[in-house]
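HUMAN: Mind sharing a backbone?

ASSISTANT:
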Amino acid sequence: MQLTDPQRLDWLRLIRTEGIGPRSFRSLINRFGGAAAALEALPDLSRRQGRRIEPFSRAQAEDEIAALARLGGRLLATGEATYPRLLQLTDAAPPLIALRGAPQILNRPSVALVGSRNASTAGLAFTERLARGLGEAGLVVVSGLARGIDARAHKATLQTGTIAVMAGGQDRIYPASHVGLVDAILGEGGAVLAEMPMGWEARGRDFPRRNRIISGLAYGTIVVEAARQSGSLITARYALEQNREVFAVPGSPLDPRAEGTNDLIRQGATLVADVDHVLDVIGPIIERGPDPDAAPARQRPDLAEQPDFWDEIDLEGRASLLNGGADPDLVFDAPVVEPDEPMDDRQKIIALLGPSPVGTDELARSAGVGARVVQTVLLELELDGRIERHGSGAVSLVSR
């Protein structure tokens, strides 16, 4: 299938109409035979629902397509040859997704690699090693452009292939400090995807929405560091729903950043301590191809149910908009903002330390500071009894 320009415009108008999500979009298309007919039927649906459903205007849709084109992007539709095949197999695949970059990378074999924004130096170092190994094995690495694990995964695979999935619109990169990373991804033949409209500032509910795209693009999802109740575990939950593999990197039981990953392993996720642990599982799946209807062949982690984070209209008129239960720690309707003040060097170094020993050179590289600054901060922490020194100059935080 290849949409004509008028059809693509109608698809955009329909999916941008308030209250219509991926599932209800598909239902409307199936019921009325196309987006144009579905748009014409919306007034009648409005009367049955007892509420006004105002279609996204043609002018708004044309403006969005033009703005995306000015950035060098375009909209891909489900069913088109360039649309990611693995993502299309999922239940709630975006009918349209905005692409900047190389479309051919979207259908190469890929693995998702996600984890903590507040990552430890050890976690970042292992992420880089793992991502490089996956890239050298021919796999594209997918992640969410966040700080910490995501950013390190993207940077490590710029030359072998990486896909970034954004929570906001293509012109609203979050965090703003990753504008340069996006440019590097595009410059090296990677791709940047966004489901949300141009001009859309990422909100709390948009990150779980984005996560089901990250997992849907990949044969499996690897979680490197994740606290309990973290967004990375939501990505793992979506991977399970999509009948994809889940992997987890073990961590110290003394580090809260490893609680979620250790739980995943205990519940059946594949333990990853080397790139071969991923390749041994993913390789046979790539050879035979994904089967969304196949029963899982291995034990799967039993993750708690998470709500859906996109609005749907009820075509049978039995319910109002589905807003889903919300994590009280997430402000779903507020834009996500970055901290006003960046961390100082001491705060950066402390945040990167954990119970696992790390070398001072790696610590300096991860913090982006000089070796002398690291040694000064470590001396202060040692005098305060907060770190322990190990052989070969490695250090770790003392658990309290």
